[in-house]
Design goal:
Belongs to the peptidase U62 family. It is built from 10 helices and 17 strands. By secondary structure, it is of the alpha+beta class. The protein folds into 2 domains: 239 residues, PmbA/TldD fold; 105 residues, no CATH class. Helix 4 packs parallel to helix 5. The two termini are 48 Å apart.
Length: 463
């Protein structure tokens, strides 16, 4: 039977009676009213964030429903500046008295804090003026139909349990669907409105018995139900990954090429992002302090930020401080082009915001190789890492040591699973030793990268 998209197997994915624009209008009016109250209280600058989130999550295990949870959350955050003294307060209560008390509390905090030379709104000339939508609003009627959500989760789990008799247990399946709307406004006159949806379906299984048990799974996420894989496909893929890990062998300690699967490669890029983020840099708690303009990777390597992608997981016209986003290179020709900065960290470093308050927006890692099979063949002999464990990364020195599991590759083919090993190195050396990036991009993240081959790492196993 051919797998189809989740929304095709369960039609009518769009929520009827969408009132998101009216709710955004109400939040925008509320933010303006709060800014006026801050001004009347004597604040020299102020900013307000208003958010409303709704969602449904269900989980099942071994064919039975475990949880069904509906959520409706709201938050109002007010930040004021009296010169260079800052105060913040928040509430979920929209009653006039509660809102007035929130402004009063933020002002009281600001009056009792010390001056901070870097405090204040982002500069007015950096504010976004062209605010667009990026096809990120796809609410799903399933949010109001828990029975159908349970049906989908059960279908995914059952497909995995039926895949192989060695799967005798399940860690369950879960489905989540939700929407978020938000308004950010500040006393520069900036007001930004945003709305987005996100949906997910995943499952995990246990194969084998006793000490020979192995666990793995699979999940799919997207802004639209159209982006979610079919439940049966998710279940079968999760089961296939689980049984592939059965009967792992040990690996002799040595130096080997290491191929990080696409989902594991994201963590390597994540370590780079942490090291070049403003907070770590101005605290000098990064192994990449003073590295802007330095070659960190091979000459062909690049990472570009693409905030304007349609249906991108982190597309936006402005960052969390209202600063206009832009396409730009983080790494080009192997050289670190810039840091990741909001206005506060930029001022602490004597630089300008890179429109990354709140994080990065749709990073694309440049590929120089083909798909996953080609990457495995190209490695020839070495370790394929499909799971990483532990937090053994020193952000100050770049020393890297993490528990791992995966597969041994010989003559360009996957031979057998391995576990109980540790992969170690130093991130600076690992970045330089990257030999290839595949085009097998895992779409389930705003950091889009294929599998990454590191030429040599220490692998600690037996002996």
């Amino acid at each position: 039977m051919k797998d189809t998209a989740l929304s095709e197997t369960h039609p009518n994915p769009v929520h009827p009676g969408d009132d998101s624009q009216a709710r955004l209008d109400r939040l925008a009016a509320l933010s303006q009213r709060l800014l006026e109250q801050c001004r009347a209280a004597g604040a020299s600058q102020a900013e307000v964030s208003c958010n409303e989130d709704t969602g449904l999550s269900v989980s099942v295990r071994m064919g039975e429903v475990e949880t069904v949870e509906a959520s409706h959350d709201r938050g109002i955050a007010v930040t004021v500046y009296f010169g260079q003294r800052k105060g913040s307060a928040s509430t979920a209560d929209l009653a006039d008295a509660s809102l007035a008390a929130t402004v009063e509390q933020a002002c009281a905090i600001a009056r009792h804090t010390e001056d901070d030379a870097a405090a204040g709104l982002a500069d007015a000339e950096l504010m976004a003026t062209d605010i667009r939508e990026f096809d990120s609003w796809h609410p799903w009627a399933l949010e109001h139909e828990p029975e159908r959500a349970i049906e989908l989760a059960l279908a995914a789990e059952q497909a995995g349990r039926d895949f192989d008799p060695r799967i005798e247990n399940s860690d369950g399946a879960s489905l989540g669907t939700g929407t978020s709307i938000g308004v950010y406004a500040n006393s520069h006159g900036f007001i930004g409105r945003d709305r987005s949806s996100q949906h997910s379906l995943g499952c995990a299984f246990i194969a084998g018995r006793g000490e020979a048990m192995q666990r793995d799974g699979w999940y799919s996420i997207g802004l639209s139900a159209d982006d979610i894989e079919a439940p049966a496909a998710i279940g079968r893929r999760g089961a296939e990954r689980t049984v592939a890990r059965l009967s792992p062998r040990k690996l002799a300690t040595g130096q080997y090429p290491v191929l990080f699967s696409a989902e594991m490669s994201r963590s390597l890029i994540g370590h780079l992002l942490g090291a070049v983020s403003g907070g770590a840099l101005y605290r000098r708690a990064s192994f990449l302090v003073d590295s802007m303009g330095t070659r960190l990777f091979p000459e062909w390597f690049g990472i570009r930020e693409l905030p304007f992608q349609q249906r991108g997981l982190r597309s936006t016209s402005y960052d969390a401080e209202g600063v206009a986003t832009r396409e730009s290179d983080l790494v080009a020709d192997g050289v670190l082009q810039r840091y990741i900065l909001g206005c506060y960290s930029a001022r602490r470093l004597g630089l300008v915001s890179t429109a990354n308050a709140g994080g990065v927006h749709n990073l694309q890692v440049r590929a120089n190789a083909g798909g996953f099979d080609e990457m495995v063949r190209g490695m020839g002999r070495g370790l394929l890492v499909t799971e990483l464990m532990g937090q053994g990364v020193n952000s100050i020195t770049g020393d890297y040591s993490r528990g791992a599991a995966g597969f041994w590759v010989e003559d360009g083919e996957i031979r057998h699973p391995v576990d109980g090993i540790t992969v170690a190195g130093n991130l600076k050396a690992m970045f330089q030793a990257i030999e290839a990036v595949g085009n097998d991009v895992d779409p389930r993240s705003h950091v889009r990268t294929g599998s990454i081959l590191v030429g040599a790492m220490t692998v600690a196993g037996e002996g």
